[in-house]
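hi! just following up on the protien thing from before. the input was this:
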Amino acid sequence: MIKLGLLLLVLPLFVLMGVYFWELNDVRACQLDGGHWDYLERVCRDTPQPFVSWLQRSPLLVNGGMLLSVVGLAMCTVGLYVKRAK
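and the predicted 3d structure came back as:
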């Protein structure tokens, strides 16, 4: 239970950070070229675009990842408190 809990605790965070930094790389490349990133269409534009948070654009990914991490934390906590059968 602890191993699965640790996997659920850590894996969603790495997935979220990977997706976030993948998009950040595109945004940064667009800005360095003198453009403005359109967060809704995920393309570089010539005119300024409004900022739309990642939570508004991908609520299932963000909330689902955090929920899996909380479930993993609960599994780790329960696994540490429950005695192992010998």
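The longest strand covers residues 36-38.
The two ends are 16 Å apart (CA to CA).
cheers
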